[in-house]
Amino acid sequence: MEMTKSSSTLVNKNTITSIAIGGFDGMHIAHQELFKNLDEHGAIVSIESGYANLTPKIYRQEYSIHPIYYYVLENIKHLEGDQFIKLLKEEFPNLKKIVVGYDFCFGKNRKYCTDKLQELFAGEVKIIDEIKLDDIAVHSRIIREYLKDGDIQTANKLLGKEYKIYGHQIKGQGLGSKSFVPTINLKIKEFLLPKEGVYITKTILNEKEYNSITFLGHRVTTDGSYAVETHILGENIKNSNYTTQIKFIKKIRDNQKFNGFEELKNQILNDIESAKNYFINIY
Ligand SMILES: Cc1cc2nc3c(=O)[nH]c(=O)nc-3n(C[C@H](O)[C@H](O)[C@H](O)COP(=O)(O)O)c2cc1C
Ligand SMILES: Nc1ncnc2c1ncn2[C@@H]1O[C@H](COP(=O)(O)OP(=O)(O)O)[C@@H](O)[C@H]1O
């Protein structure tokens, strides 16, 4: 049956018969493997540690058709095993099945793991073996490391999608259009930012997706401040109030200090050529 995306605010918890439990920052391919084991009345129980920065809470539902219910780790981490199961049964009275990964632990001092879950829960417990891709274990902390290294392609493989951040447009130095190329300057709050450098990206503005190039880093050649700036390839777009989304595809080069604006401008024009060639070759 074709299922449509359901927000947890619209789904009655009484209808839920299966749940997957975890942190789910990233909604990566291992998380998706858990979700495949849910039935059509399945839900995601997301335990919020406060550290999520790949898919912060309000951005997570986009990546699953199953409704997500959020619980704050601080409020449940003291529970003994039986109290945790009791809570789940109170929350989801018709719960028949729980899906977790091989490393799932819960409760006081994380002393209850999958064996205890099987012992304490009267229904079915499905445990997913460790998911790896090309011998790399798929975990949000591993994906964060690849992003911090600028290895977007590996991060994207593990995510099963292009890493995407959301930001608000802010005013830049006003140098871009005059001395370089026009850019949209962004303020990014909740998302992990990849390593400083220049990236091939796609930018979504007002639901339209554009090919783009994005600089992240300290503007060591101009004012030294940290910036996230996107240039839309082949278009001149005015800054606007739209929330902007950036999808990362590939790093072109590291951040660099240039001897003057002329050199920086020449390099930016080269970067733009590389990005355009990339998009020509994939289509
Ligand atoms: C594709 C691209 C690459 C960039 N690379 C660098 C760089 O390597 N080093 C640097 O200091 N600034 C770099 N910048 C940032 C420029 O310094 C910045 O665009 C300029 O300061 C204009 O800023 P404004 O938009 O706030 O006016 C780059 C910008 C773009 C669009
Ligand atoms: N590589 C993996 N293979 C199998 N299950 C996993 C894997 N990564 C996470 N899980 C399971 O997914 C759920 C969410 O785990 P979480 O700790 O939020 O993920 P991560 O390890 O990526 O931070 C847990 O039940 C966990 O056991």
UniProtKB/TrEMBL annotation:
Q: Does the keyword Flavoprotein apply?
A: yes
UniProt GO MF annotations: ATP binding; FMN adenylyltransferase activity; riboflavin kinase activity
EC identifiers of the protein: 2.7.1.26, 2.7.7.2
> Matching SUPFAM superfamilies, A to Z?
Nucleotidylyl transferase, Riboflavin kinase-like
Return the broad EC class. Answer: transferase
Among the record's GO biological process terms, what is one? riboflavin biosynthetic process
In what residue span(s) does the Riboflavin kinase domain sit? 158-280
Arranged from A to Z, the UniProt key words for this protein are:
ATP-binding, FAD, Flavoprotein, FMN, Kinase, Multifunctional enzyme, Nucleotide-binding, Nucleotidyltransferase, Transferase
Biological or metabolic pathway of the protein: Cofactor biosynthesis; FMN biosynthesis; FMN from riboflavin (ATP route): step 1/1; Cofactor biosynthesis; FAD biosynthesis; FAD from FMN: step 1/1
Reactions the enzyme catalyzes? riboflavin + ATP = FMN + ADP + H(+); FMN + ATP + H(+) = FAD + diphosphate
What's this chain's function? Catalyzes the phosphorylation of riboflavin to FMN followed by the adenylation of FMN to FAD.
Family per similarity comment: Belongs to the ribF family.
What protein name applies here? Riboflavin biosynthesis protein
Lineage, broadest ranks: Bacteria, Pseudomonadati, Campylobacterota, Epsilonproteobacteria, Campylobacterales
**Gene behind this protein:** ribF
